[in-house]
């Protein structure tokens, strides 16, 4: 059978993107710095919980502080007057914390951020199109960043509403 | 039929492979021989679509593979020389990944994986991560992955690397059985006795250039030499190997 006559699902399997997304997601959790022989995968849930803790603690602390200020000011203002200059130091604290942790995660995951030699040697002989491969990698990267950003800032952002 | 036409690969104008031409018919096993650095792996990488040739063409069923690369790769099974695997996956997960990327239906895929794992004596370790596999076990995983989709073309680059004696014998018989099923097979190796036993046609490469392209019988007859080892030595080995060995020992004992 001529190659061009093969069924389209063989030429372009629809599940390739999902498979690659799953693979690249797992690669973020397979960290050579923590487990050089891949004897263990990073358990995502405890790490996310650990990252969320500072946000929760600062949010609870700030909640009491800004509720108190609102009571003392004595006229109607939002429950969290975040435009006040006194709130800047706390806002910066959240920004610093997020930036430091994201920087740390980036260093830890640096090798997995882009397709590397191993990806090339394993995936290139397979019938996978380069656009599918790169789209899956970029999607996995954004998903990973989104999950960590939410873990870092989700609690504090929801408390400030 | 797989045809290589005047294939050349240069790395910054230095030729690694120069004007190599050969064809492999379905049902035949072509042995691709050469010393280290002769250009075997470079040719294999071009045949698998990992590298683009600087010149020349690779034709499969009369069409240039670069014009139908995804389709060509879907008919290709490749056992690489370097066993690169995702160590955090288990043997079963790796085969599932390869099978799914090749678009195999899940039920057929699971059945095939179980069969191949059992036949290659990997079934007990199927849930262990690949990082805990020995070199031979990793090689068996790569061979299984190359056979999962019943490929038309098989490119084998030093496939017996790391295999124990029994597995190597099984593998040789497997190659013959696959050829009998009409598969087009290229077997790149530097183990002469294996190539002599398994392959119907031989290409000998030296410094990127093709030195011979014929059947073992014809080469023996043409060169009036009894074995492939002698033919290889005549065509490729220019050094006095015994003298070289003595010099290494002398250097070691200084």
What does this structure look like?
The complex is a heterodimer of chains A (161) and B (254). Chain A has one domain (16-28, 44-159). Chain A has helices spanning 8-11, 16-29, 44-73, 88-108, 110-113, 117-123, 130-159. Mean pLDDT of chain A is 74; it is low at 1-11. By secondary structure, chain A is mainly α. The longest helix of chain A is centred in the middle third of the chain and has 30 residues, at 44-73. Helix content of chain B is 41%, strand content 24%. Chain B has ten helices and ten strands. Chain B has helices at 40-47, 69-74, 91-101, 106-119, 135-147, 165-180, 192-198, 216-223, 228-235, 241-253; strands at 2-11, 14-24, 29-33, 55-60, 63-64, 76-79, 153-157, 184-189, 201-206, 209-214. Chain B has a six-stranded mixed β-sheet, sandwiched between helices. In chain B, strand 7 (153-157), helix 6 (165-180) and strand 8 form a beta-alpha-beta unit. The longest helix of chain B has 16 residues, at 165-180. The N and C termini of chain B lie far apart (55 Å). Chain A binds chain B through residues 2-4, 6, 9-13, 15-16, 19-20, 23, 26-27, 29-30, 37-39, 41, 117-118, 120-129, and chain B through 48-50, 60-61, 63, 68, 70-76, 78, 80, 82, 84-89, 97-98, 100-103, 129-132.
